[in-house]
Every structure is written in C-alpha cells, then in structure tokens.
Amino acid sequence: MALKCGVRVFKLNTIRQAVRLLSTHSSPEAVQNAKVGDFPGARAPYVTELKFLSEASYDPIPIYRVLDHNGQVIDGREEPNIDKETLLNMYKTMVQLSQMDKIMYESQRQGRISFYMTNYGEEGIHVGSAAALSPSDLVFAQYREVGVLLYRGMTVTEIVNQCYGNCEDPGRGRQMPVHYGSKQHNIVTLSSPLATQMPQAVGAAYALKRVPNNDRCVICYFGDGAASEGDAHAAFNFAATLDCPVIMLCRNNGYAISTPTREQYRGDGVGARGAPLGLRTARVDGTDPLAVYRAVAAARGRALAHNQPVLIEAMAYRVGHHSTSDDSTAYRPAEEIHKWNSEESPIRKFRQYLEQKGYWDVESDEALFKEARNRVVKTMQEAEKKKLPPWKEMLEDVYYEMPPRIQKQVKQMEDHLKNYGEHYPLDKYQPE
Amino acid sequence: MNALTTQNVSTLTKLVKCVNAYSKRLSSHFIYFPDNEAPLEGETSKMNMMQAINNAMDLTLKNDPTAVLFGEDVAFGGVFRCALGLQEKYGKDRVFNTPLCEQGIAGFGIGVATAGATAIAEIQFADYIFPAFDQLVNEAAKARYRSGGQFPCGGLTVRAPCSAVGHGGLYHSQSPEAYFAHTPGLKVVIPRGPITAKGLLLSCVRDRDPCLFLEPKILYRSANEMVPVDDYTLPIGKAQVLREGDAATLIAWGTQVHVLLEVAQMAKEKLNVNVEVIDLMSILPWDEETVCNSVKKTGRCLISHEAPLTSGFGAELAATIQEECFLHLEAPVSRVTGWDSPFPHVFEPLYLPTKWRCLDQLEKLLRY
Ligand SMILES: Cc1ncc(C[n+]2csc(CCOP(=O)(O)OP(=O)(O)O)c2C)c(N)n1
After folding, report:
1. List of chain B residues whose C-beta atoms are within 8 Å of the C-beta of residue A199
2. Which site from A60, A315, B194, B315 is most exposed, i.e. has the minimal number of CB atoms within 10 Å?
3. Which is a Gene Ontology cellular component entry for this protein (chain B) (predicted)?
4. What is the dihedral of CA B97, B100, B106, B110, to 10 degrees?
C-alpha cells in the first residue's frame, strides 16, 4: 500500500510502518526536527499536526495482470514461462470445471443431488494458483475452488461421488455436496463454517516450517465475505507475528450471497489489510490465469525462502448464483453479469491466449467441451447406481475409538430396526 | 401476505386442545399439525411461519421507532426471506446488511440494546452462531448481573434458523438450544409454527432480558395457520399442553412437537392409550410446573429432541422430573433423541428421533 503519489515522506530506514502514519503535508523542517517516539507498541516520528488518515490517504492497490481481455500479453517480460502441456492442462481443467458445474447444477434442479455451488468466473484463479504450487503444498479451501482440486488430480468421479454422498465418497456421505477433501492430494476436507480454515492454514504452515528441510507451503483460499469474520483477522495476525509460510488467497468476487462488497467493507478491499499487518500483499486480476500464476509462484518463493506470509487478493466476479439455494436476480441486475461472461471470461481469455500461441484451435475446443460433458454425464450415471455407505457409518469416526455410549446407541438402533426396519429406506444403504 | 380471511374455527375434538387433526405431510419425517385456536379474537390471515415472523417484525418496526433489524443478507429479506419487504418499508437505517461476522452481529446488537434501543439480530443459520457464543454467553447473558442492573441488554433478540431440513448435513441442521440453556441470564425460545412464532417473537422483542429465538427452518414455508393480524404475545416460560392424556407425558419443542403429536395419534390407534403431549416452547426458563403436574398425573414420561442425547436439554428435564415426581413415576424417564454424532447428511432418516423410534420407546415405557 503506497502513500498517495507526490507525498513527501520521512526516510527513516528503521521505521517502515511509521511511514504510513505520517502527515501528508509535513514540511522539510519538520523532518529535520522530528524526534522519534519510541514506544513498545510503535516507533514513529512525532509530529505537531494532528491528522486522521482516510481511505483517500492511499492509492488503491493496483491490479496486476499479464493478459488483456483479448488474451494478449501486455508486457512480454511478464509472460510466465510455462510449458505447453501445463498451459493446456490449465485450460482443460477450466473447461472441465465449467462443464461439470453446468451439469451438476442442473442435476440439483432435477432433484438428483441436494445442493450445488458453481465456480463460474473464478476458474482462472483456480488453475493459475494450482499450477504455481507444488502438489505437496497443503490446501485449505472455502468451497468455490474446485478447479484447484481438479488440477491436483482429483477426478470428476471423486467429486461426483461426494455430491451423491455414496459409498465411494471419502467423506462417507456425512457432509453436504461440495464439501470435498483428499488426503492423497493434500486438500484438507472443507467445512461449511466460514473462515475457520484461515487460522488453521496458518497453524499448518507453522508446523511445516519446523519440519527439517521443509519444501512445502500452505495456501488458504477464502472469499471477500469470509474475510469479515474474526478468524480472518486472527489468521493474518498470526501469520505475520509467527512468520508462517502461508499464502492467503482471497477470491474477491464482489458478493457474499446477496451482500455486495460495498456493504461488506470500506477501504481498499481485503488487500488493504495485508501490508499494515505485516503480510506481503499483491492484488491481481483473477480473470487472468497467468497473472494469478505469477503472483502465487512469487508468493510461494517468498514463503519458502523467508517464511514470509503473503496475501493475494484476486479480483473476479461471481458469475453464477451463490448456490442452488439462491436466486441472484433478487439482488443484482442480470446485465451486470454480462461483461464477466463475455470479455472478462477467464476461459475465453485464456483460450485466446492459447490460440495466439498456436497451441489450440476451434476443433480441439469443440472436442474438449464434448468430452468434458460426456465424462460428467457418464460419471453421474454410475454414481447414481451406487448405494449410500452402510448406515452404521453414521456413528463411526466420531472418535478414533467408538466409546461405549455410542456403541450402545448403535445397538439400540439395530434393535429398533429389527422391528421397525420397514419404515426406513434401508435398501438405499450398503449392507454391512 | 395472503388475503385476509376470517378464521373458520373447526370443532375441536375432546382430546386435541388447540391442534388440528387434519394434518399435512411435509417431509419423510413428520406431519404438520397446525394450531387452530387463535390466541386472540379478531381478524386472522393465513400465514406460513416465515410470514408470521415477518409480520411480528413489521409490527415491531412500526410501533417501536428505536427498533432495528440486521444480519447477513437481511437487506433483501434474508436467505429465508423473513425480512422480505421490510427494508423498503422502514428504510436502510433500520433494516440492513451487516458484514459477514456473527460475533460482530451479536456484539453490535448488545451495543444497540445497551444504548436503549431494540435490536433484532439475525444469525443466518443456528449452526453459525458459535462465533457469537462469547458475546451471547459472556456478555449479553451477564450484562444485567455484573452491572447490578445498570446496563441490562434486554432489548436484544437474536433470531436463528435451526434444526433438520432433510438435507442440511453437519452445518445446516443443528439444534443448539442446550448450549445456551446452560447460560443463566439468557432466554431461549422455540416456536412450533406460525401462531406461536408471532406471539413468542413479540414477547422476546419486548422482554427485559436478552432472548435467543430459534426458528425450526423446515417450518418456514410449509406450515400454514390462521394467524391473528393484530399484536399479541405468548408468555415466555409457559409450556402448552396440546393433547391431554393419562397414560404418559410426551415432551418436545420445535419440529419434534409434530412428531410426538403423530406418535400420540398412533398410540391411540395402535395401543388404544391416551398420551399427553406438551410443547415446552420455552427452553430457558422452562415450565417446571406444567411438566411436573402432567408427569405426576401420567406417571410416565418420554422426552424427544433432535439434538444429540448426551447433555441435550432432555437431560435437564429428566433430572428435574425424577426429583419432583419420583413417587409418581411408574417407569424411568425416557429420551428419544438424535444420536451422539455430528448431524449426518445421507443418514438423516436414521439419525432423527423418528415417530417410529418414539413409538417403539413409548411401547417399552408403557410396558415397563
Ligand atoms: C460462519 C458462517 N456464517 C455464515 C455462513 C453462510 N454462508 C455461506 S456462504 C456465505 C457467503 C460467503 O461469501 P464469500 O466469502 O464472499 O464467498 P463466495 O460465496 O462469494 O465465494 C454465507 C454467508 C457460513 N457458511 N458460515
């Protein structure tokens, strides 16, 4: 966060934070006479003019981008050096995700699954960040980051099985749809309460940094709404004071359900909370996968080389409804969405980039969309046939070992089902 | 709001005090038994529970110029639409969105009440009330006591949708009443439908102590009743006997009341016994007198709630009943509840204290 341009600032090397608190109209004389206040809580120059800072005291954090809206690289020096295969993999993941979202959203409408959330408009954040990380880096996600999971190698089958909560869901049908998790892919299982993952990610990063020869960092995804929770502040403060190798990646998509960012926060977005708390901070165009890639790659370097926590605010737009329980026409005009579905669509932008590089063409694209759709439809048909996990798994995993009191409850239910089993949909569950 | 119609009072059967026998199947797990006795003479209108709550808040905003209503997504009506149209009617400074922060919502509400105004705070789901636990348990509940009565925050009412909906899983299904019932200074209230929702919410809003109003969300749209359009309150701390009987006392609150009303019907048909059904309505303080008088009469008691068994509010009832009614009891007090696990998604039909589990237990209780 830079002080507004043209402002004269003290050059006191030792005092970084203090610079921000200075009067923007300090005279050079004041500089010479300035004494430095040395308090345990702050070391900063004394001034004799009282001045309150405001939003306007700072320039907004600029939005870093590599591609323009036609998918053209704006400054050749900024184009990341990513091999063709990786670039295509990123694109294919975006397409797979958008097609899966379409079909799964529809399937909820048809009553096949109970709930769903789409990722439209944020695919670039997912693949840009995932490609810049190592598969061993630990992911703490919110829910609208499914592209990260796909990029890491979670299959459409695993995702669809979770949404059906069937016997192949690693979460054993216990959570609502979209609450994925995979030990194998270093993705910590999602939970619905917002922002709880944020201080947890910081703690995980702390533990990793203590591992000898650590080469892993943690990335934590969260929304502009979640950033208002107390846990978000705790996470930033802990990350900075405990020097944790963590990347805090905010998906700022303009809305938290119906609440626009204007009612979520004042000041310069979520990014404004980074640097003053001691996190390296950047803001990027989240519709540009290459910009996200560059920012996350650089953040990862800092996190691992210096145990520096980094905050990245990726700007995007939530193109879909919040979830299948939401109808966003109740609070935003349909026209507002158009731009984000067309010129600012991350998929379109990235496809144009690939075409310009000669890596992709229309025929490949048509085939890819078709293949992506077919994969989901076929997977759904299979998932639908699978039974739910055995009902007793309802009472397993509450503890490592089932305590006697829960054992007793299993027994009670068994006894009850002996006489009343016909009143329960037992055929939906796998036999033990 | 639906067109206003006058209430058509149907003849009540002898056993059913104010509950309609013409019930409606809502989901796999219960049938809704509407109230058909208005607590107030005069004009009524058909409302579902969401509309009845909306109506209570509308009356509050109209009659109390200090009242404000806020929470996540409340401006457009809230995710369950209970505040629908109220911002348009009363303005953005009275009905508004807050940032996404439950501890902030509760603390802000306490502040509004401390300054002498009326606060209706909405927590989007009861499952997300826990970041506000500190503000409610350590602050709201103890404000009167620690200030010697100087700074009470009775102007605060916190509303939160709770309980099972069929597909809510771990974090859209919980019934957290017992956590708060362990907190002297708070009042905890749960309606069973539109009529009780309106009367109890208006009581909470006007109560001199902070109240937590838990709204069983499955009832928002599906439960319809003829609700008086005028202002009325129902007393906090009073239970209602919904069905009289002599063989056993069945106690529940919220959605589970309807499950037990059906169990009572089944007990009559299948076992030819008359059981008494009590809606506790108010968890804290709770109506010891109504409950114990009933159990002394019937000698048998079954308590049912959706929340897990261990340390659920049924435990408090059972302990008190054994103490107060010991010599009248013909059998140990029974509890039929959710199991001691988090609330599971695909296992919900086997997790809930279904009418079959309640009936099964009732048979054992009667045979004891
Ligand atoms: C603690 C908590 N409070 C409320 C909710 C309900 N809720 C679910 S998602 C959501 C909005 C989140 O918005 P944001 O963080 O911006 O993410 P987005 O959905 O826009 O991706 C809310 C309020 C919740 N899940 N957890």
Report:
1. none
2. A60
3. mitochondrial matrix
4. -50
A322 is catalytic: yes
CA B312, B318, B321, B322 dihedral sign is: negative
Q: Which residue of A has its CA nearest to B127?
A: A193
- pLDDT on residue A9: 39
**What residues in B contact A193, CB-CB < 8 Å?**
127-128, 130-131, 171
As a 3-state breakdown, chain A gives helix, strand, coil percent values, each rounded to 5, of: 45, 10, 45
Strand bridging mode A138-140 / A187-188: parallel
What domains does chain B contain, in order, with CATH numbers?
44-228 (3.40.50.970), 240-367 (3.40.50.920)
Residue A32 has pLDDT above 70, yes or no: no
For B275, the token pair is: 């059981």
Q: Which atom of ligand 1 is nearest to the CA of A194?
A: 26
Residues in chain B whose Cβ is within 8 Å of chain A: 72-73, 75-77, 79, 96-97, 99-104, 127-128, 130-131, 166-172, 309-310, 339-342, 344-347, 349-351, 354, 356-357, 360
Instruction: Return the amino acid letter for A139.
Output: V
B69 bridge partner residues: B95, B120
Q: Supply the DSSP string of B289-350, one letter for each residue.
A: HHHHHHHHHHS-EEEEEEEESTT-HHHHHHHHHHHHHGGG-SSPPEEEEE-SS---STTHHH
Mean pLDDT of A402-427: 98
At B29 the pLDDT is 86
* SS3 per residue for B139-156: HHCCHHHHCCCCCCCCCE
Q: Pocket of ligand 1, candidates A249, A257, A331: which has the most ligand atoms within 8 Å of its Cβ, to mutate?
A: A257
pTM for the structure as a whole: 0.93
Query: What is the strand order of the sheet A187-188 is part of?
Result: A63-64, A280-285, A310-315, A246-252, A218-223, A138-140, A187-188
pLDDT of residue A33: 59
The active-site residue out of B72, B122, B172, B215 is: B172
